[in-house]
Amino acid sequence: IVGLAKGHRWVGGGNALPDGTAYAPNLPTEEVFTLPDRARTQGRAVFTKPSVIAGSIVEGLVVEFEDGRAVRIEADTNVEVARNHFTTDEGASRLGEVALVAESSPIAQSGVLYFNTLFDENAACHIAFGNGYAMNLEPGADPTDAGMNLSQIHHDCMIGGPEIRVTGIAADGSRHKVMDKGEFVI
Fold this sequence. Notes:
single chain, mainly beta, 4-stranded antiparallel sheet, 3-stranded antiparallel sheet, 16 strands, about 10% helix
């Protein structure tokens, strides 16, 4: 379960300059992403694609979270690299982003692992360890009060695939299906 920050908003790949001019800083872009609350991630995340961390390929990454913090990190390869990276600073073991990507995205369908986060993040749903983005908050929101994580790192790790299901839980406890079998259903 990933709890979202107070006042979070979902955004896509577009952004705006101070004068209002729209631009796309990351092409291609298939993701919509938002800001998790640094203290509200619970459970186990099984990562579905390899991740390049500090020049090493980490495969089979599994992370357990309690109260927002990664408390157990396992991997089939280079587990110490992952453990060291996700303890870089106080916020490195917490989430700064959660992103949804449809399995039908062209990057996912290519089946290619590019070993470049700006491409690979468009191939699967992912969560990022480390720093969050204030752009995912309503204008005027205080990042600290909202629950935004701060860190020197921001590292995306892929959790998506054809088996993924995403259910949103509203403040009133109602549940809303967002993704099923890796595809958006809303």
